Structure prediction request, 155 residues.
Amino acid sequence: MAAMRLASPAFAAGGRIPERYTCDGADLSPPLSWSGAPASTRSFVLVCEDPDAPAGTWYHWAVFDIPADQTSLPEGLAKTEKVGRLRQAINDFRKPGYGGPCPPRGHGTHHYRFRLLALSVGSLPLGPRPGCREVLSAAEPHILAGTELVGTYSR
Prediction:
């Protein structure tokens, strides 16, 4: 079976994330698509994190309860806690939904990891307004497979 793959038409793996997806632009979530999930997948979680942040890993986004038959996320997902059947966590900017790359000026290149996890459960048992770390902790015991796409940004 093919390994899971995550891609974006907006930037290449290891490439610079365009300004429109950052705090310097429109701050839209980038379009993403994936393939190769295990047949037993019941839902997906998508997390975006910056391990290069000055105070340690900074969580920019977590989307969870993504239905197993879904294979993409559109550009500019609404910054609300629920979008259709999807749920979005509270990011480290203390807001629901996506918060784009916004590294300190002159801090060098940051690597933004978009991680997609295939889960063995259809939804995560989380209350209202969970944080990104809570989503990851709840997903951990149910991960069947994962993949990541890394983009860079600097200011």
Q: What stands out?
A: The CA atoms of residues 81 and 128 lie 8 Å apart. The chain has one domain: 5-153. The beta strands are 5-7, 32-35, 43-50, 58-67, 72-73, 82-83, 86-88, 110-119, 143-153.
